[in-house]
Amino acid sequence: MVINTFSQRLPTLDRLGVTDPFNVSSSEVATEWLNAFSAAISQNDTAAVVDLFLDDGFWKDVIALTWDLRTFEGRKDIKRLLDARLAATGLHELCLSQESLKEPVLQKVYDDLVWLRFCFGFSTKHGKGTAVVYLVPLPDSKWKAYSLLTCLDSLTDFPQKVGPLRNGRSGSEEKRREETEFSNNDPTVLVIGAGHVGLETAARLKYMGVPTLIIDKKPRVGDSWRERYKTLCLHHSIWYSQMPYLKFPSTWPVYIPAPKLADWLEAYASFLELDIWSSSTITKTSWNDSTKIWTVEVNRGGKGTRILTVKHLVFATGSAGRPRVPDVPGKASFKGSVLHSSEFKSGAHHTGKKAIVVGCGNSAHDIAQDFYRHGVDVTMYQRSSTFVISVESMKAVLGVAYRDDFPTELADTYGTSLPWAVARRLHQRMTPMIAETTDKAILDGLAEAGFKTNLGLHDAGIISLYLERGGGYYINTGASQSIIDGHIKIKNGSAIESFTENGLRFADGTELQGDVVVFATGYGDVRDFMRDVCGDEIASKIPRVWGLDEEGQTAGVWRYCGHDGLWFANGNLALARFHSLHLAMQIKAIEEGILNKADVVI
User: Secondary structure of 224-278 in the HEC alphabet?
Assistant: First the structure.
């Protein structure tokens, strides 16, 4: 059982002193609350606004009021936000959404947890957005806000050039070559990394009119996926992993193979006419703090060197740093081969041999399963317990909204609508429930096989592990059954002591024989590549990238990281799809003089 160290409580019916909140009109309740909220906003009456919230209510903002990703907890904190930003933001034109999927609805989350969810549109001085409200009942038949999200969707004067705003025709091949070469100008933004995150970020910027160049050290777009182990597939569904502007074909499998995704990314870059220099690396950078401009020297492989002056560097180099391999004594004496998981391609090269996989996350399981399928005698060494969840249960965790008949953009908005403090409490209920029902058989089988599992950080499951650690879990796509059936053997309970000539020796005196040892032991700090490019002085000003800050927001990613003109963009396909828009709007707002970070003080 998790030790309860968090002060936040869910607004259960018992806590609120309510027994039957169902005999109401959802639309009437939402309208009454929004009318009162709108009146208080229009009068700039911040005290009246906060009176519409529970004492421990939340206001979560995605760049609408704060130009940042922020969460304010409790009336005092919410009032602090409003006193600082309400007048400056010019929140107005609040309009209740009545269309399908956005209309007010009473939701029974659990038997003791009921809230009324609804959406409203709003405008600010510079944009339009969507709000999601969660109201809870009180004994006097009043309803108050437990949580409110305000999310900016677009900039009024600088909308994305899509739909009716798209260009009339594409340029000639010669014009496209000039654009890609930046023959007559330098880009405003330099995106480092042509993986899915870099492409999505650059696409957002391009279609907001911000000249953007992507550089990547690989020869082809998609190589970061193409060069991974051959059996790699996305562990999230195709609906959850859609990309902006261009959806995956409806004929594609639910879980996309990495080679297929690699080719898609290459096509995506071509179809969206993104400007990319492949086989290119940055050899030198300097930052002028007076002009707020970067000077960047780029080695273009066989095309010489180019010096660019840009205003923004966006690091889209992945969710981790350099491959991390433990320093195990005696490696020189080992007669076999040693790989990091990033170097592994296929178990076919080791048929009939013995393999040891060190680690128990997604990659470790995939690699162990691939070894088994290719006739390799494989043992997985488990250093600590692992959170395991089935792909079926992941659908419940991510919400039922990611499907063919539900708009992806709205699913994203609902997915981010609750602050992490609330979502964590919900996951603390959901995770043990899944473990005792849907996933019970697989977890019991793993326990019998000696594989140690857990319920994630704070017993909050996979989302907590992903957001706070970026790993420590396995989404079961088949390897768990192979462990249960004995096809993948397990070693744990004792630390690795050293290599031997023929394998690994452990502190308990046992030895594992192996012809190949694969360290699926993760990666280093996200800032590693930025430090290589920008130097120690710049890196010292970036306190943290990834993990959660004190408000439950991802630190340093998709938002101001601590240094002007320097941004980090990383995460899975869903996070990149959603937040690439918010990063692009921040950069566009800076370039158009709308946003001056020094003016946003809360």
Answer: HHHCCCCCCECCCCCCCCCECCECCCCCCCCCCEHHHHHHHHHHHHHHCCCCEEC
Residue 4: the pLDDT is 60
With CA atoms as reference, report the closest residue to 393 among 236, 526, 269, 596. Answer: 236
Q: Which residues pair with 257 in a beta bridge?
A: 233
Pick from 72, 132, 65: nearest CA to 92 = 65
Backbone angles phi, psi at 169, to 5 degrees: -155, 160
Distance CA 555, CA 540 (A): 15
Distance CA 129, CA 63 (A): 10
pTM, whole model, 2 decimals? 0.95
Using one digit for the tens of pLDDT, what is the confidence trace for 46-68? 999 999 999 999 999 999 999 99
- Alpha helices in 338-460, H assignment, sequence order: 362-373, 391-398, 408-416, 420-436, 440-448
pLDDT tens digits, one per residue of 128-161: 999 999 999 999 889 999 999 999 999 999 999 9
Residue 436 CA to residue 443 CA, distance in Å, equals: 9
Nearest to 161 by CA among 211, 204, 213, 212: 204
